[in-house]
Design brief:
The protein is α+β, with helices and mostly antiparallel strands. Helix content is about 20%, strand content about 40%.
């Protein structure tokens, strides 16, 4: 039943106004809809992103959302020009070089939004 349904990501923000500005200025996303529950963004597919205000924002230490990109260096370069900082990791099972980790499925990089949520770019092999 669910295999054919569209999904959407739900991300917390401790300051919805700050998050909305960050997603516009850093990622180039404009809200599709503003509602009482938060701000919703459209992506290049039917998938959506909903950002809502809560005191729990930034408390998760895992990847909250990932974009599949055709060229990770190009995507990272565009985001770096806007001030996005990519994480570097060096521990068993995950080591980045210039912000990129490589494994059999492809290459990935991580950054945090204004609210501390971990976001990811992935270029599939």
């Amino acid at each position: 039943m669910l295999e054919s349904c569209v999904t959407y990501s739900v991300l917390p923000a401790s300051d919805l106004r700050r998050a909305t500005q960050w997603y516009r200025d850093k990622l180039g996303l404009e809200p599709e809809d503003t509602m009482e529950s938060g701000v919703r963004y459209a992506t290049g597919t039917d998938a959506k992103i909903l950002i809502y205000e809560t005191a729990n924002a930034g408390s998760a230490k895992n990847t909250a959302m990932c974009w599949i990109v055709p060229d990770i260096e190009d995507a990272m370069g565009s985001l770096r020009e806007k001030g996005v900082v990519f994480e570097d990791y060096d521990f068993p099972g995950l080591k980045t070089e210039n912000g990129i980790a490589t494994d059999s499925s492809g290459r990935s990089s991580w950054f945090r939004d204004s609210e501390g949520n971990y976001l990811c770019l992935t270029e599939l092999s």
